[in-house]
Amino acid sequence: MTAAxxxxxxxxxxxxxxxxxxxxxxxxxxxxxxxATAPAEARGLDRDGVRLMVSRGDDEPVHAxxxxxxxHLTAGDLLVVNTSATVPSAVDAELADGxxxxxxxSTELPGGLWMVEPRRPLPGGAxxxxxxxxxxxxxxxxxxxxxxxxxxxxxxxxxxLATVEGDVDLLAALxxxxxxIRYSYVDRDWxxxxxxxxxxxxxxxxxxxxxxxxFTADLTTRVIRRGIGISTITLHTGVSSLEGHELxxxxxxxxxxxxxxxxxxxxxxxxxxxxxGTTVVRALESAVDTAGTVHPASGWTDAVITPASGxxxxxxxxxxxxxxxxxxxxxLEAVAGRAALxxxxxxxxxxxxxxxxxxxSHLLLPYAGA
Length: 370
Known about the structure:
This protein is of the alpha+beta class. It is built from 6 helices and 20 strands. The protein has helices at 170-177, 217-225, 257-268, 278-285, 328-336, 338-350, and strands spanning 4-5, 29-30, 51-56, 62-65, 78-82, 84-86, 90-95, 100-108, 114-121, 127-129, 137-141, 146-152, 160-164, 202-205, 229-235, 251-255, 273-276, 297-301, 316-319, 361-365. The strands form 4 sheets. The protein has a 9-stranded mixed β-sheet. It has a 6-stranded antiparallel barrel with strand order 7-8-9-13-12-11. Strands 1-2 form a two-stranded antiparallel sheet. A hairpin with a 7-residue loop joins β12 (146-152) and β13. α5 packs across α6 (338-350). The longest helix is centred in the last third of the chain and has 13 residues, at 338-350. The model is unreliable at 1-22 (pLDDT under 50).
């Protein structure tokens, strides 16, 4: 993998709205030794055998294993997980001029529109970004489905708005001929089951809501036996490979009435609400009012969580490890604070934690232990 400076500057990025900057003042280099290239199971581990760093307030980070998660929470706390299931959203296609490409189908939008990413196929099955002229064109998918690529999405040279020609169920076509999206750091294709969490039952995500991947049925049972609740939201994620100047785009979400009630009840008795993944933070923060009460909600959220906006609905976060251009880092800073996040990322780097969807985990608790 080509090395890239990780988290290299404290200066706000003027190309991001509102001065949003996910970058932190860390100066190490991102390299292949810190990347999980395969699922934990292929590396001889159970899913819950990946490493877990626990960052708690001003304390030094604690190194643990994900199966120890319940040991770092308290009876009365509430975990909120995402039930979105991953769709095999990468599909071979051919442009009108005969160029062979791969299309990553990202997000279904209102009005029959889709957001898609045309990509260049690489030897071995991975892909790389592909810049197309900013004019309408067509792409025929492997099953014959015709996509009309209308124009680049606002603020992006990479993502396109598209429509499907005719009365075609695009999700059904993807299930028939698609495969999971993977990037070059993963060295082979893995089956779609490798990209599902134990909570997945609502198909719709282009890429796995990966923070919950280390959960197993046994771990979930242990969590509940310890008096820690589990509630659900659904948020369908698009492609995660955003560039440094791109803000997160709108995504579909549902916060059910039962989850809103559980969050409010936990907070009322002094429990902590722990979001399992940045998708959960985005959903809950799209459903909370200024007084901190979460309401049932559904629709589309374009919320961008920053240190300036803060968080009202969550008290902690289970997450993976994020790269420098990810605006998720601004969300993590909003939850945990800059000093704790810097300390954790330095410790994770020095200890050889693994990044990306098959990698290790991070529990951010911005409060002291009991």
